[in-house]
Amino acid sequence: MPKRKLTGLLTAAMVLLIAGILIFRQSEQVDFSTEVKPILNKNCISCHGGVKKNGGFSVLFEEEALALTKSGVSAIIPGDPKNSELIKRLHEEDPELRMPYHRASLTDEEIQTLHKWIKQGAKWGKHWAYTPVQKPKVNWTNQQAGFSDSKKNYLGIDFFIHEKQKENKLTFSEEEDSRKLLRRVSLDITGLPPTEGLQNDWLTGKITYEQLVDRLLDSSSFGEKWASWWLDLARYADTKGYERDVSRTMWKYRDWVIKAFNEDKPFDEFTIEQLAGDLLPNPSQEQMIATAFHRNTMNNDEGGTEDEEFRVAAVLDRVNTTFEVWQSTTMACVQCHSHPYDPFKHEEYFQLTAFFNNTRDEDTHDEEPKLRFYEGEDLEKISSILSWVNSNGSQKEAEALHDFFNFREPKYHAHLCEDFVNGELIDTKWLGLWHDGSCYLRNVDTQGADQLLMHYNSGLDGTKISIRNGGPEGEILSQFTIEKTSNVTKSFPFKKLTAPVDLYIEADNPKASPQQSTSAITWFAFVNSLPGKEIEGYKEMNDHFHSVLNSKVPTLPIMIENPSFMQRKTHVFERGNWLLHGEEVKPKTPEALNAWNPDWPDNRLGLAYWLTDTGNPLTSRTFVNRIWDQLFGRGLISSIEDMGTQSEAPSHPELLDFLSYNFMHEMDWSMKKLIKTIVLSKTYRQKSILSPELYQQDPQNKWYARGPRIRLSSEQIRDQVLFVSGLLSQKMYGPPVMPFQPEGIWETVYNGESWKLSEGEDKHRRAVYTFLKRTSPYPSFITFDAGSREVCVSKRIVTNTPLQALVTLNDPVFLEAAFHLGQKMKSYSNNDPLKAIAFGYELCMVSPISPNKMEIFHSLYKDALSEYQNNPELIAELIPDETNEKSAELAAFTVVANALLNLDEFLTKP
Amino acid sequence: MKNINHLLAELEQQRLEKQTRRHFLMDCVSKVGGLALAPLLFSCGLGSSKEKINGLNLSERDLNPLAPLPPPFLPKSKSIIYLHMAGAPSQLELFDYKPELVKYNNQPCPESLLEGRKFAFIRGVPNLMGPQANFSQHGESGAWVSDFLPHFSKVADEVAFLKAVHTDQFNHGPAQLFMQTGSPRLGRPSLGSWVTYGLGTENQNLPGFVVLTSGGKTPDAGKSVWGSGFLPSVYQGVQCRSKGDPVLYLEDPKGISRNLKRSIISSINQVNSEEFDHYGDPEILARINQYEMAYRMQIEVPEVMNINDEPDYIHSLYGTDPGKESFANNCLLARKLVEKGVRFVQLYDWGWDSHGTDKANAIDMGFRNKCKEIDRPMSALLLDLKQRGLLEDTLVIWGGEFGRTPMQENREGKTMGFKGRDHHVDAFSMWMAGGGVKKGTSYGLTDDFGFSGIEGRVSVHDIHATILHLMGFDHETFTHEFQGRPFRLTDVEGEIIKEILA
Question: What does the pLDDT look like over B387-408, one tens digit per residue?
Fold first, then answer.
């Protein structure tokens, strides 16, 4: 064929092809979510969105975008791009009129997309993450089609990963060698290197990989490892935060999380119990403990602070945290205005707030309500009192009393007192009336109770307290004298009332010096006295009652809903200011998400049902994305905290939905099944070697053509070091511990607490049990990127700093571990350095040492040995006093161990 | 024209940057000595563009997140020393002279001032309290400075006063967070983190953002005031301590000599280098880099933190007392750190919460003593920076988290045994000095009682915008992507205070 003719034909073919593409593209429907919304978000929304609506135009919501603008015309006229102001302004030549204002103009392609979209009717669409999770199709081979569901699940992962790899001209790396894979999966599932037994069983082929994974998932270390991750989301800490940052007792919640993970509590139940365990029918103690999730909010004890301001801050934090943790949605911006990018309206934020705004906690110093953990005699007394009330009174009374014993609600906190004469709130917390002092406690509903319970202390004898109805002239409802006492709960007869009243409280004590508080009152409660006063045994019962109320028992802050007569109204806060109340709102979930089922109660429990409904588009996707991120160091959506319209598009949308759908429908919300599915995949089991070409093509490992290689977390680093040196304590649960920490770290103002080194094995517990002080977290943990747990953290950013090197080289905790590892090496090898180094290396890395590395360590050993032989005084400095053996060899092994514990491969998941 | 000048300036900036890097490199090669690892050279600041190592295209920041970067605009200052008086000092006894208030001493505060206001501790109607210090004018600028600060009054010509700063937080914790992170709630990066994130630091052997505390306590808001929020934690402040290790875990363990430490680190890095050959993961190179830096930090930090060897005249200038934790020592350290190329030095001095509940926090007793403690050192700091030619590219900032009321505190409605003032958000004073700041100025005016600003009111966001401007940033475009949106230090507010720019 002559050359010219060929060219001619080719040209013709090209023309046809291009025309074909153009025709094809012309006829194609523009997709709002994937094509239009990104252009609007990138170029328009910062001036025409939730915060600013310049020119009266916003592209956030459909009705806003199509509405008339300030100039009286619509910026978008569906079907008519030429007359749409939006398009006109993009083409405008006058820089004052051309949009985006004073910024680079849109590309022709972008303008074309918008043009076409308007021409096609400017159809609004839903962001992918707000559409229900649907099961994507997998093209199974005939053989695969016959596999079990669980096998299909992990094969499905590889199928979707491979599809994307093909698009990017990549493919899987080969499977990681068995020892490295063992270490990887063990660190991922249990946070620890594999135990000796497991190593043997796996390396000798006694168990399959799946059995290995099952053994790891069954280990109680699983819960401890994954709890650290959840506690970041739950903002769990052992102190209250803010200025004084004093301790609080929250650890029973931490233990609940560990147990829940170990029991593989389905994630829907796990959710419901934490958000609303108290509202379940006849909640168990464990379900009540779970609600401490939302009592991890900070509590401000700083003098001069208004409790209501910080109660509101805690409530809003609960809204924000709930939406970040379960919905990957950043609600905090909707606090002040409609969301700048996502379809959430200002009032919707406060409708969500209404779900959380009716709990009893009020940022009081004592952090009530708190669950009480009674034991022994107290339990017996309670049971006898309750059966007394049941038989002499009513079941209802017994139930109310049961609750009052358990969490002391309902009650009125003294900080509600107002209009003081000769008195004030002491440190803005406790009621302190001086001689001839008075105040009001308004709108109190005693529910007709005949008894007042008051919690107080007093430094004076003989203070007469009178409580009147309505004011100084009102009827006396209760009058009594209180004596000098430390904190006590006492009962006083109270006149039965049928309606809410304003209490007028007076105190008289001529013995008090001027401006001296006669007592410090914490709260008032109205609880019926025990029935059956005429029956024998009453006095004993009444004594029991008071003894139980004043029994010192362990406690835990929990969520308790306001009774009907204490319900709060929720208002929109204008511009997010809690003092500027707008219209009243009722609990309601956002329009853009799944529908509400009218059978659900309009409270936190209903909200928890809504979140765990299989129709909720975000809960399952969020959870799957988080677990994936934990295992691969990167989520399928890389912005872990946000799945909104501004988030990065998912790298593998079908895979995300495949796993999210199966997580709900096939795995029944089982976290262990989900983790198992992922770690069984080929994707997870690849070698993590990075060739220059691969780095060039995919530096972030977005297409998973290699295995995950990530630095370990601060917790894993500590636990692993203690594990390989043989120091790690197996003890689980209980109060937080204080391992070694240098002097002078805690210097919090107005706080007398100090770091007291734990004793015995408590010095070597897993990191999850370390006391976490918010204003001063454990130093080596923050250095390795752990946070202070003041607010919910979805992802720790991994850094690589010289301060980390200083920790693992010099922190006495790591040095102690090096010494113990050195000792193990020495005794194992009978002083043969080569044998010792090989042993130590394998203990740390699970793999045998290479000849090159052996040479490096051997030479370090020889250097160290001669250093200690020449300077024997250094030996005694290095080796702990209590060890008798002060040999140069032991010192040199310690030095080698110190180096081993600092290797990049040791600090990194292979 | 403006654009061309800007470009020229940028080029010059880059040239300077390269030059320092070259020196640094030579320095570095000689220090690392025998350990010939190619990647190590990288740590010494070779080039800001991408470099090829083992076939990987890496930028300097990939290996060292603190590598220096030029700011987008020509900066006026290269480093910052921020003196934060935690607890909030009274402006009415220091810089905001209110002769009228003298007349109303002990008179009940006019109701109009109290209407709709909330105070932390004041209840009912408190009495006004006149200034408890004597004021006079100083220097050519005629700045009003009280006799609580006799030394500082001599350097008043060096600074620009802001007399009508306001905030919206009247509790210490939230107010300190607001002042240092731009938000009263937790979770935002601190000013120092932003600056180090944007600029890196000049000296890789020292932390880029150093925090020094005095007064026996850390600030009320805790370590979050120097936290990195959603920025990588490498940009958080590093607290250098006066007692124990200046930086935690800096000192070699007992029984491990410097020599041996060198061998240990060399072995670790040789093995890591093997590991890199196998895995090709650039994070390993970064780690090798960090271990070398750690080793150098172990030498350089104790050197810079040791003030014993300073000449006597320096000690008498600052009033330093080596070995003690003091504001004076910290001022001298701040100068040394900045001189060595540290980007941001943050001092917190605790003990300024002068409520008058006891002697230690009475305006005329404890507060006066606190003034004595800072007067000489902070004046010395300005003089010393100046005599070394450092003041022209160092920005020095002084202030608290809010001000104090013109009324005497009557906590819980009681009459108090000592003279004190409550927290006040409406008006307080700060000052700035050094690179890019107009010397000898005073901007902003308060009413006769010093209660509210009536002219030149500036917000915390304005102060941040101005600081960033002086460091070469536009506060509106200096952002970090988080939770699907760009975050900035000044949120959606902030105006540069042009009136105090040179």
Answer: 999 999 999 999 999 999 999 9
Q: Which residue of A has its CA nearest to B292?
A: A802
For residue B93, the distance in angstroms to the closest alpha carbon of chain A comes to 23
Read off the tokens for B259.
């020599």
Better-scored residue on pLDDT, A748 or B98:
B98
**Does A535 have pLDDT greater than 60?**
yes
CB contact under 8 Å between A243 and B264, yes or no, is no
Please check the confidence at residue A197 and state whether its pLDDT lies above 90: yes
Q: Where are the alpha helices (DSSP H) in A538-648?
A: 538-549, 604-611, 619-632
ipTM field:
0.89
Q: Is residue B39's pLDDT more than 60? A: no
- CATH class for the domain made up of A385-553: mainly beta
Which residues are CB-contacts of A381 (< 8 A; sequence separation ≥ 6)? A544, A547, A548
Assign A170 to helix, strand or coil.
coil
User: Residue A1 — pLDDT band, cuts 50, 70, 90?
Assistant: very low
Q: Chain A: give the shortest CA distance to residue B43, in Å.
A: 12
Which residues in A lie closer than 8 A to residue B270 (C-beta atoms)?
Answer: 856
pLDDT at A18: 52
pLDDT band per the 50, 70, 90 thresholds, residue A141: confident
Does the distance separating the beta carbons of A804 and B290 come in below 8 Å?
yes
- Residue B297 has phi, psi (to 5 degrees) of -60, -40
- The reply to whether the predicted model has a pTM over 0.90 is no
Q: Cα torsion at B361, B365, B366, B370 (round to 10°)?
A: 130
Task: Decide if A269 contacts A324 (C-beta within 8 A).
Answer: no
Look-up: residue for tokens 């001529």? Answer: A510
Mean pLDDT confidence for A753-779: 94
Contact A690 B485 (CB under 8 A): no
Asked if the Cβ–Cβ distance from B492 to A51 is below 8 Å, we say yes
B264 to chain A: closest CA residue:
A899
SS3 A503: strand
Q: How many residues does chain B have?
A: 502
B362 membership: H or E segment, kind and range: none
Q: What are phi and psi of B212, to 5 degrees?
A: -125, 130
Chain A, nearest residue to B279 by Cα: A689
Tokens (6 digits) for A572: 């929109």
Render pLDDT for B209-236 as a digit per residue (tens, 0 to 9).
999 999 887 787 777 899 888 888 789 8
pLDDT tens digit string along B441-473?
999 999 999 999 999 999 999 999 999 999 999
Structural domain boundaries in chain B: 2-63+253-300, 81-243+323-500
Residues 6 or more apart in contact with residue B120 via CB below 8 angstroms: A303, A304, A305, B170, B171, B422, B423
Chain A residues in contact with B123 (beta carbon < 8 A): 420, 424
Q: Which CATH class is domain B81-243+323-500?
A: alpha beta
Residue type, position A647, single letter: S
A313: which chain B residues are within 8 Å (Cβ-Cβ)?
Answer: 185
The answer to whether A229 and A630 have CB atoms below 8 angstroms apart is: yes
pLDDT, tens digit, 9 for 90 and up, residues B90-135 = 999 999 999 999 999 999 999 888 888 888 888 889 999 999 999 9
Residue A122 DSSP SS3: coil
pLDDT of the residue at A684? 98
A-chain residues near B422 (CB < 8 A): 304
Nearest 5°: CA angle at B484, between B483 and B485?
Answer: 95
Q: Where are the domains of chain A?
A: 1-30, 31-125, 266-368+566-611, 385-553, 810-909
Q: Do B260 and A895 touch (CB under 8 A)?
A: yes
Cβ-count burial A623-653 (b if 16+ within 10 Å, e if not): bbbbbbbbbbbbbbbbbbbbbbbbbeebbbb
Q: What mean pLDDT is reported for chain A?
A: 92
Shortest distance, CA B135 to any CA of chain A (angstroms): 31
